[in-house]
Structure formats: C-alpha cells, structure tokens
Specification:
Chain A: GO terms for molecular function: iron ion binding; iron-sulfur cluster binding. The complex is a heterodimer of chains A (about 100) and B (about 425). Chain A has about 100 residues and is an alpha+beta fold. Chain A contains three helices and six strands. In chain A, strand 3 (about 50-55) and strand 4 (about 60) form a beta hairpin. In chain B, helix 8 (about 315-335) crosses helix 9. Classes of the chains: A alpha+beta (about 100), B alpha/beta (about 425). Chains A and B meet through helix 1, helix 2, helix 3 and strand 6 of A and helix 3, strand 11, helix 6, helix 7 and strand 15 of B.
Chain lengths: ~100, ~425
C-alpha cells in the first residue's frame, strides 16, 4: 500500500464514541503469563479498539475501557484460556449512537 | 418477574430478535425480550442496507414511519489496486417506484423504531439486562438467568437472537463457538456531510442513494470487502476481513480503514466530512457449512447467532429478519396445536427455514467461503492488480501498437497465475457459484 498512515491514533477514533464504563469490573481479563501466545500477541495489533498492549516485560495487558464488544479477541483467545470474556453488565460498555 | 412464565423469551433486540418477538407478540403469545444495551440498537452495528420485502412480510406498512435514509438506485462494485479501480456500475430509475426494495438505514435509529413496534404488539422489552446463562433441566432449556437477579426467568421457549458474538448458546453447549475462519471483523465510521454535497458527489436527487462495495489490494491479501453507503446526511464506510487472516497477518483494522479512506478513488467522496462514530463488529462468513444446530428442546437460534449470512450477496439483516419471523411463526404454530416446545416439534422451524430463500441461498453458495478463503491472495491481490493493468493497457494511448498492449496483458495474467492456474480458478469459481 502506498498510502502512508502516519500519526494515526485509535484513541482519537474512540473519542467519538460513548461509553459507560463499569468501574472496577473489567469484562475481559488476560490470564497471567510469562510469554504471550501468538494469538494473544496478535491482539495488540488487530483489536480494533487497541485494548491490548505489551508491557515492558513483554506480556500482554488489557485496558478494556474502549472495547466495542466485537468479540474478535474472544474468537481468537477464549478457547485456549488466554483470556476470559463476558459481556459488560446491562447498560454498561459501548453505546452506539448510530451503529 | 419471578413466578411468571412466558411463552417465549427472546435474547437480543437486533433484526432477528425484533422480528421473532414481533411475530409472536402480535399473534398473542406472551413474550419477554431481553436487551443488554441502554436502548434497542445501542449495541448493534451494521453497514447498513435494509431489504424492504423481508420487513414488509413482518410489518407491511413500515414505510409510513420507519426511519429510512435513502432508497438505493445505484450500486457500484469496484476492484481496487493501490492507485486505481475497475468497476461495474448499475443504476436504474426502476428503483424509484413507490415501493423501493432497498434502503440505507442507521441501525441505532431503526432498531428503536422496530422495538417500539414490538412493544406495541404486546411484548415486554427489558433493556439494560444481560442474559448470563441458559437454565436447563434434564437437557431442556427452561429459561434464562440475567445479571438483574439470580432467579431463573421461566419460558417454554428461548429464542437465541444474540448476534455474531453470542455467548449463551455456545456456553450451554447447544452450538459451537464461531471460529476465526468463520467470522470477519469489520470496522466502520460514519461521516457527516450536508445532504446536497452527498447528492452532488454521487449524482443523486431527492432520497436516492448509492452504494459502493470494493475488494482488492485494500485488504492486503486478506479475504475482505470494503463498503461505502450513502445515508441522507452521512456516509457509512468500512472494511472487513476474516479474523483468521487478521491474526495471520497482524494487519491492524483501523490502519486498513484509514488506507481505504485515503485511497485516491475514495478520498474526494468523503472530503471535509465530520466523523461522529467508529464501530467494530463481527460478521458471520462461514456460510451453509458453518450453520450450527438450529433448534432443540426449548430453544431455537436465529440470525447472526446461527451464522445465517449470505456473504456473496452481502445480505445479513434480511436473513436475520426472515429467520426470526419464521422461528416466531413456527413457535406460534406448535403452541396453537397444543404442542410442547420439544426438539421434535420445533423441527418445524428448520423445515420452514429450509423451504425459504434463507437456506436455499446459503446452500447455493456452500463452497464459496472455502474457495475465497483459501485463495485469498489470488482473489484479493493478484487479480485486482491484473485487472487494473489490463484496463490501463486497453485505455492507454501512447503510440504502442494495440497488439503489443494485448500481448502484455495476456503475458501478465499467465505470469501471475499460469495458464493452468487461470483455468483452474475460473472452473472452481464457476462450480462454487453454480
């Protein structure tokens, strides 16, 4: 692709959205690990809300506040136990104005 | 709600759930519908195109008050490479009649309207309520648990309309969880522009609408599709690819979306627009072969949760609405015969669905997902580039003799795929299409 994608911050995209964050009750959790599996590592690139990031120890961490509840990470990483996934409590999470 | 028992509980207030709840409630069944969003539609994402015929079978006079954006008079399909596109375009004034067959919609608004109809038909709709578990007794589904109370809400039947990322049916062991090969991840933005600017850019008048669907190097070798739909005062656009392809390539979906927006064929269409939302959603892509068990003792599954999506024709919501309606009719039929909601009796849903366009269409394309998925680089990278090159050779006027341009085109195709490869791809495509 010749188009340069510079300075794209997905945070700026998520800023457009409405969320009602359920403080202290993250709906997705990452299993503690030394080294992430290939799929878990892939989430740092392919989660559309960029919820997954690598820490300095090379482990994958999640901040689920911007989650759009699409389920991509669930499809990839729930069966292996890399993550646990539940929907946010009723009314919480992303609120699409247009959808 | 303890002690009360419903004829049916519908999980989810999307297209499938609303169609099912409306069908049953309007026939007098006692229906409870659960929706985890603040309001119906607040968790739902679609492109979105709505097919009138399928809604008409449920609510015949929907045009009176449904929130519709534009009716479609023009469809473009583009095969894109990095700097160009080759396209097919179909536009017809026949789509301007008094009952157009396709509309663009905004789901958050449309679903609120549909849900109002469900309530008017007599169903109880409970929002901000996440169903957490199916309650079973002796292998039969008898109700659901929610995050409101630990008590089971009882019902004769549960209609699972929980969408592409539905948890309940899978966790209860009633169906397989979707695999990364059977779902696509789509990301989407909505861009606002004045109505007259959209009219000008797409050559539209009044409520006419245009859609562009595009495949090619924009998905970077992954099996994928991009779209641009005109709404009244906004443009919905997005791109989706198989989750397994995303995982293999580690391409980022928002970078893909930005590149699509910045493509020279798209950029001018959305120039100066104001982005108001960014959304992501899974789309079932497994087709006929990925359809799970559709019914059992005390339950049926409809819409995206049942993988009922025709990826070839990009029809999802109409299969959802139709499967929801048919499930509702089947449940009503069993009930009115005095039958219990056993697996045996609910098989009527499958029989009726098999007889509809839903299963007939999906069966027709049963080999298509595998073909496109296993050949994604050829279909989404090599051929678009070759098409572009061929078109350029055909158009070019630079003193090169035409015969040489033609030879260059043929040579490029053979070099990229070999004679055998070209014939084989064509035959396999024809067989899968048949």
């Amino acid at each position: 692709m010749t188009v340069a994608v510079t300075k794209l911050r997905v945070e700026d995209k998520l800023f457009q959205n409405r969320y009602l964050v359920d403080q202290g009750r993250p709906h997705i959790k990452v299993r503690p690990h030394e080294h992430p599996s290939a799929n878990l590592l892939a989430l740092t690139r392919i989660c559309p809300a960029k919820c997954y990031e690598l820490n300095d120890k090379g482990q994958v961490e999640i901040a689920a506040d911007g989650c759009m509840e699409c389920g991509t990470c669930r499809v990839l990483c729930e069966a292996s136990g890399d993550i646990t996934w539940n929907y946010p409590r009723g009314g919480f999470g992303v609120l699409f104005k247009f959808g | 709600m303890s002690g009360e028992k419903f004829d049916a509980i519908v999980i989810g207030a999307g297209m499938a759930g609303n169609a099912a709840a409306y069908t049953m409630a309007s026939r007098g069944l006692k229906v409870l519908q659960l929706e985890r969003g603040e309001y119906p539609g607040s968790k739902n994402v679609q492109g979105a195109i709505m097919y009138a015929n399928m809604l008409e079978e449920i609510i015949p006079n929907f045009r009176d008050d449904a929130p519709l954006e534009r009716h479609l008079v023009e469809q473009r399909f583009w095969m894109m490479d990095d700097t160009s596109h080759v396209g097919i375009q179909y536009r017809s004034d026949d789509f301007n009649g008094s009952t157009p067959e396709r509309y663009t919609i905004i789901r958050a608004q449309f679903d609120r309207w549909f849900s109002r109809k469900v309530r008017e038909a007599g169903a109880i709709v409970l929002c901000e309520t996440t169903a957490t578990e199916l309650a079973q007794e002796g292998g039969k589904v008898i109700g659901v648990r929610t995050d409101r109370t630990g008590d089971v809400i009882l019902a004769d039947t549960v209609v699972l309309a929980e969408g592409a990322n539905g948890l309940l049916g899978a966790r209860a062991g009633l169906r397989q969880t979707s695999t990364s090969e059977s779902v696509a991840l789509a990301v989407k933005e909505i861009h606002f522009l004045p109505e007259d600017v959209i009219d000008q850019r797409f050559g539209l008048h009044g409520n006419e609408g245009c859609v562009i669907e595009a495949a090619g190097t924009i998905s970077r070798g992954m099996a994928g599709l991009a779209f641009l739909y005109t709404n009244k005062e906004s443009i919905s656009l997005g791109i989706g690819c198989l989750v397994s392809d995303f995982a293999a390539t580690c391409e980022s979906p928002y970078e893909l979306l930005e590149a699509f927006k910045n493509h020279s064929s798209i950029k001018h269409l959305i120039a100066d627009s104001e982005v108001k939302e960014y959304a992501a959603h899974l789309i079932p892509e497994g087709g006929y072969k990925a359809i799970p068990a559709l019914f059992g003792d005390g339950w049926v599954v409809v819409g995206d949760a049942a993988q009922l999506n025709n990826a070839v024709h990009r029809e999802g919501s109409n299969l959802a609405m139709t499967s929801g309606r048919i499930a509702g009719e089947a449940i009503f039929e069993v009930k009115s015969r005095g039958g219990r909601m056993t697996k045996r009796n609910l098989a009527l849903y499958k029989t009726m669905l098999d007889d509809s366009f839903v299963i007939k269409d999906l069966r027709k394309y049963k080999d298509m997902p595998a073909l496109l998925h296993t050949n994604s680089r050829n279909f989404f990278m090599t051929y678009p580039k070759l098409m572009s090159e061929a078109s350029k050779n055909f158009m070019r006027v630079d003193g090169t003799p035409k015969i040489e341009n033609e030879r260059a085109t043929t040579a490029a195709f053979i070099k990229a795929r070999s004679r055998w490869g070209l014939v084989s791809d064509a035959v396999r495509l024809a067989l899968a299409w048949r």
